Automatic annotation (TrEMBL):
The lineage of its organism: Eukaryota, Viridiplantae, Streptophyta, Embryophyta, Tracheophyta. It comes from Solanum chacoense. Its cofactor is Mg(2+). It comes from the Eukaryota. One of its GO terms (molecular function) is metal ion binding. This is Putative ovule protein. Keywords: Hydrolase, Magnesium, Metal-binding.
Length: 113
């Protein structure tokens, strides 16, 4: 029972983070899908990665982001193509490169089915 509550809180908190930091309404988001854990090499801190779809256009998201509750936690929001994301990956911190690798595996897995 407690494990399911902890798990549910993790998934609920991911949605809250997106709502607070991006400004997208919760009802525009899909349920999060856990895609894996990556960790930093230096301090071995783990980071959990989730995938969420949003049914809003990028222009709408940019507008919502400008007035999001916690938009101060980041400097800018980017909408990029997969090829641009591939090029940006080399500049990401290690755990984020791991998250990108998990995302690529998820995308490949869904295209294979």
């Amino acid at each position: 029972m407690i494990n399911s509550k902890v798990s549910q809180e993790m998934f609920d908190s991911i949605v809250r983070e997106v709502v607070e930091e991006i400004g997208a309404p919760a009802d525009s988001l899909s349920s999060p899908i856990f895609i894996g854990i990556s960790r930093r090499v230096l301090n071995v801190r783990p980071t959990a990665f989730f995938f969420i779809k949003c049914n809003l256009r990028s222009e709408e998201i940019q507008q919502l982001y400008s007035s999001a509750q916690d938009s101060f936690e980041s400097t800018q929001l980017y909408a990029v193509s997969m090829s641009d994301l591939e090029n940006m990956a080399s500049k990401m911190p290690g755990c984020h490169r791991g998250g990108y690798a998990l995302y690529k595996l998820m995308v490949q897995g869904t295209s294979d089915s």
